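EI: anyone free to look at a 129-residue chain?
SC: sure, send it
EI:
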Amino acid sequence: MHPDIQAYHEAQAPSDKAICDALYQHIVTALPHAESKVWHAHPVWFIEGNPIVGYSKLKGNVRLLFWSGQSFDEPGLAPEGKFKAAEARYTSPDQINPTDLARWLGKAETIQWDYANLVKRKGRLERLK
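SC: here you go
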């Protein structure tokens, strides 16, 4: 585990740390080649410099965010923000459905919008894969 991600987990309350630990294990298993780091104060995974998935502690829950998640066409993911992101929120690690999460992570790898060049393209997203 990247030391910054470890520090992020250690800073969480025990119940939230348990959620973060579970999400981390699922993500690294499904995306072993993805680069991970703390980006904008939260653990995020990247493929070729493009953000794919991350999680963050919010008031009352932990949010799992897929940058291209609205294109997955998956129940259990809610639209987030003005671009293509979608999220799931958890208050307990028991709420994480491993089958759903594995499917979402597979789609995160194959369905990508180019967030890495969003600023260069003046806010216009293009589909990568």
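EI: The chain has one domain: 3-110.
SC: 👍
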